[in-house]
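Example record

One chain of 298 residues, shown exactly as stored in the release files.
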Amino acid sequence: MPETPQRPTTLSWVVAWTAMVIGIAASLAANVAHATPTVAGRTIAGWAPVALLLVVEVLAHTPRPRFWVLAWARYLGTAIVAGVAATASYRHMRGLALQAGEDWLTASTLPLSADGLILVASVSLMALAYERRAAMAAEEAARPAPMPMPLAVSAMPQPDPVPLPPEAAVDPAREAAAAVPGDAGPVPLPEAAAAVPADADPVPLPAMPDPVPLPLPLPWKSDAPLPDALAAGLDRFPDETRRRFERAYRIALAADAAGHPLTGAELGAQCERGERWGRDRLSEVRTTVRGRVLSGVS
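Predicted structure tokens for this chain:
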């Protein structure tokens, strides 16, 4: 069983950054001292170490892209910046050492100490950043998820009964007189019917049936293999964490393929994790799928 990733200690970060800053400072000082004594010349000479420091800072605080084209573009850019910085640092420091009276061998090998220090510090910072992200992912995966709330239709409020208007009082004599022709003889009038009182009780409406609770949605299932971009990097997690990530990816892919995309809360509940964990997995899945579509990969 692979070892659970741990967060790097503060001392590790301090040592790595101290070495990085000292190496960059030595390279920057040598470049500026050996450059043409003008503002433009010293600015140009000092740019390469600063660019390398910025690249290391970006790499340490951003995750590796899952889309391989973006990952290789980042590696290529890093190699270009590091190569330019190493070349400029070596030439300026070697020339400065020769001007200071050092022999040829010392002047030719001394710049390698600064470049080597920068290289070791850069790799150490990348490793620390990788371990920190892996530990954060493991902690998030091990965090207990809240209990999912059952879905049910809330009871609809019953409307108040609408009172019906009271029926008008019936006048039998008037109705009989209107029904008899003018030349007819007197017609005996029936007894007057009792008038309907104005404050009669309204007719009650039939009661509405109780609402039927909706069933819970069935979980999505899929046995399709994961894309390489999603499966890459899962080996560093423990078995349980890796299986949970794979299950979340398959559920999200199956839901999107069926035309019923899930929310972060729904995916987290199905994997016994929280809403934020579900949102992160959905973002990884959809970023990977979008990248495969843009690159023409089926």
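Notes: The longest helix spans residues 104-142.
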